[in-house]
Design a protein that fits this description.
This protein is α+β, with helices and mostly antiparallel strands. It has helices spanning 7-12, 41-50, and strands at 21-27, 33-39, 54-57, 62-65, 74-81, 87-94. Helices cover 13% and strands 32% of the residues. The longest helix has 10 residues, at 41-50.
């Protein structure tokens, strides 16, 4: 196993000015959107080689493996790149809540709804 992201993958990515790619994380079995996170090349490489979801924490300015302290892990089943190559779709098997607030997803409480279909 190499220590760097495959150059063929790295060439395809469109990153933010600080070198990040948005990652939309979806539960494999339900297709629930669990969370949105960020990956740099090292996080993506680690995710692809270990199948343990690894992200770049913008607040802590370091890599973090989802669940490394909480136990709420994500086993990666699939990673896709979107048509503009600036977003990744990460399909995972989630153990425990995905949101740091303790909810299943970062989008599933009523106070987070800004617009909903009435009918």
């Amino acid at each position: 196993m190499t220590d760097a992201l495959d150059p063929a993958i790295a060439e395809r990515l469109t990153r933010t000015p600080d070198g990040l790619v948005c990652a939309v994380v979806v539960e494999h079995g339900t297709s629930d959107v669990l969370m949105v996170a960020w990956m740099n090349d090292e996080a993506l490489h680690r995710t692809l080689t270990t199948r343990r979801a690894t992200y770049w924490s913008r607040s802590r300015q370091r890599l973090w493996v989802k669940g490394e302290t909480s136990g709420h892990t994500q086993r990666v089943r699939e990673v896709r790149i979107d048509c503009d190559a600036d977003t990744l779709l990460v399909r995972v098997d989630q153990t425990g809540p995905a949101c740091h607030t303790g909810t299943h997803t970062c989008f599933d409480t009523d106070d987070r709804v800004l617009l909903a279909d009435d009918g």
